[in-house]
Amino acid sequence: MIKTLKFGGTSVGSAENMRRVAQIIVSEGGRLTVLSAMSGTTDTLVSISSAASRGDSETVRAGIDLLREKYTTCINLLLNSRLDEALQALERSFTVLSNETFTYRGEVSDRLMLAQGELLTSAIFCLYMQEAGHRAVLIHSPEVMRTDYDHKPDTIHLKQSLQSRMNDPEAYYIAQGFICTDAAGQINNLGRGGSDYSASLMGVAIGAAEVQIWTDIDGMHNNDPRIVDKTRPIRHMSFDEAAELAYFGAKILHPATIQPCKEAGISVRLKNSISPSDEGTLISDTKEDESDFHAIAAKDGITVVRISSARMLMAYGFMRKVFEVFEKYKTPVDMITTSEVDVSLTIDNTRFLQEITRELAPFGTIEVSSNNTIICIVGRLGDDHTGMAARIFGALKQVPIRMISYGANHRSIALLVTTEYKVQALQSLNDHLFEF
Predict the structure, then answer these.
(1) All residues at 6 or more sequence positions from 148 whose CB lies less than 8 Å from its CB, including other chains
(2) In sequence order, what are the residues at sequence separation of 6 or more whose Cβ sits closer than 8 angstroms to the Cβ of residue 189?
């Protein structure tokens, strides 16, 4: 069975963890492995590029020194016969960082600097696999993963490129997640968490029977185990349920991961690299869970845009004009509620918020509020089931609720709360909706 494996930053975050990942790949027979950068790398690179844009050379130097020490330590602990090659790879990446911070070129430099984490991590890991006696081949993802002007992956090019490179049936192929080449021929990326998406697309391209996402959590839980007591892993989940939870904040899985695998009929398995024997979660084209409530997820960083206008009353075409503004600035809307003279929308990307509110201003009074969280409850919530909403709102009787979205599908209800109530809401829902 052909498998594509993806390992997150924590899974490759140290020499010890990289050794464990190599054992997992061999044990699973992973034909293609997709790697994130070592944990903490991307955040540091973002800090370096931001400092470079401000001309803050001291912060740039501190960030580069921090990363150099991190990767040098890993290389020295991990490698022997391939040590010099790894150090040469390190110098190539840090030469790019130094050059781009010195001659900062805006987004071109930002993207090139961000790519160094995946490029360096995968190079080091591939050298370790070779030193350990395995036939490992490094694939340069920007050569195979291209996007068009709408930032959509070119799946035909990806399939052809991977198939032409992966011609050794005995080899383990190692690629970088997250990074790609855009339509302008510049190195770019698929966005935060894009390594999951890379693995999904690559798995489909090589005809994998399963895509495995390895993190430091034992599969998808019914609630956020980092902040909620008494959560439990979910062993089986449908594609649609997983997509809903991923979109609304389940950190273990990038939202875009599910669709390519669903369309190709490829199962997705979530596993724990720290404890590989744990069962994890299998996401497949299976019957949805029969329990009333299946899982809960939360999405932070939500901004509410409220438009109040008497022009909405008995009018048509108003909503079209509103959505055209968001479309113009390529800003997706998560939730929407309407009344006779008000419409409230939520967004998680505020890059063009100023431009959006300026263009909405002629429509009516505009109010904007930030620091909100969407809480999504997934379960059997069809209109033929009674008492479900009462149980949810009974659990949240001490939590102020700002917006409600229900009825768009049969499997979820979304609520908006201010972020200060997030933990209280998640714990209360967990205590009242699930049986332990």
Answers:
(1) 154, 183
(2) 111, 114, 115, 178, 179, 180
pLDDT digits (tens, 9 = 90+) for 323-341: 999 999 999 999 999 887 8
- Class of residue 46 by CB neighbours under 10 A (exposed 0-12, middle 13-18, buried 19+): middle
Q: Are 278 and 271 in contact (CB under 8 A)?
A: yes
Q: Residue 278 corresponds to which amino acid?
A: D
**Rounded distance, CA 174 to CA 125, Å?**
8
Q: For residue 403, what are the β-bridge partners? A: 416
- Cβ atoms within 10 Å of 22's Cβ, excluding its own: 20
Query: In the chain, what is the greatest distance between 2 CA atoms, to the nearest angstrom?
Result: 76
Q: What is the DSSP string of 31-81?
A: SEEEE-PPTTHHHHHHHHHHHHHHT-HHHHHHHHHHHHHHHHHHHHHH-ST
Provide the token pair at 366: 């505009």
Distance CA 107, CA 287 (A): 44
3-state percent helix, strand, coil for the chain, nearest multiple of 5: 45, 25, 35
Q: For tokens 């602990």, name the residue.
A: 77
Taking only Cα atoms into account, the Rg of the chain, rounded to an integer number of angstroms, comes to 23
Task: Confirm if 78 and 121 have CB atoms less than 8 A apart.
Answer: no
Per residue in 367-384, is it b (16+ CB within 10 Å) or e — as a string? eeeeebbbbbbbbbbeee
The tens digit of pLDDT for each residue in 303-328 reads 999 999 876 655 677 888 899 999 99
pLDDT at position 245? 85
